[in-house]
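Handout, section B. The chain below has 392 residues.
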Amino acid sequence: MYLTTEEQAMLDGEEGETLRKAIEILVSLGDIYGADRLIPVKSAQIAGVSYKTIGDAGLEWISDLHGKVRIPSILNPAGMDLQDWEKMRIDPEFAHKQQLIIEAYEKLGISSKCTCTPYYLEGFNAICADHLAWSESSAVSYANSVIGARTNREGGPSALSAALVGKTANYGYHLDEMRKPTVSVTVDYELKGSDYGALGYIVGNIVGSRVPLFILKGKPDNEELKSLGAAMAASGAVALYHVEGVTPEARKNKFARPDENIVIEESQIREIYDKTKPDINDLDIITIGCPHCSPAELSLIAGLLEGTTVSKEVWICTSREVANKYAGIVKSIEKSGAKVICDTCMVVSPATEKYKAMMVNSGKALAYVPGMCGVPTLFGDIYKCIREAVKE
């Protein structure tokens, strides 16, 4: 792989050990995947933030790094609400270790805006064809598919390395030829809302890491596309998909439909709603916001909860920046007794594990929560989630 004089000097350790390690990771990945060179990236989104997932070893590794990132960089969700972790009943020792992780990242110049939806943040925008180094699976899917930007599904260390170096290796979804659809998926009826999460849950299991081209009835909005991609990234490893006539590259390129076609029927979607049915009497928490809620989703939830009081624990997860910007909507939601949780989500927080059964409206959460949190999970659309939340 070709390196510039500056890059070679960095690899030789002339700019310090942290940068040497960082570019070594990028060069090694480039060699493995046949990259011809390193390319500049516009921003980085870094996973490996929750103390639940990285533990003391991860904290030690991050704390040993020195220097400053060269591009705008933010973090994935942490293991708790960083400002109000007590409302989640987080253990103080966990909270202390989590704060140390955040401080270690901040020392490197990384913003502690902890979210899986960085595309909602002011000043962190990406546009079609931008090269990025993002690592959270749903954010990668959204960037590649809905925005038309270009990023591989980076691991936490490689995204952090790209942030420090300002570049990543030129392979995978950075290349035109890797972005063409390899399998088509036809859905025989019109979907709405959480049906897209159910569809993603099904298709991810089938297609693995391939690039699907969807032929749909109707036109999904960005929230529905977010849900579709997040679920496919969780149940499979889909980092890029196209929707015929909807997503930017499918509109621009008018891809030929691949020979292999998978047909998804309405009965398969309906089965996902019944896939995991814990005893409804055990249902003691309802969570919405995986990926983090958009302003439009917060507004919808506020409207559904207006004039009600929740009878169960309810978490509405979003980024702190969005919550602060729409403080009136947040206040309206919390009047019902529901909790707006920032910086974290039900998947990466240990607070989830104390509950008996959870309802979600997210195919991503349906894929992750039972295994990562040990909590039986029921799937329903946002309207059903709120009905259960206020049921006496």
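Note. The chain has three domains: 5-176, 180-273, 280-390. Compare this with the example in section A.
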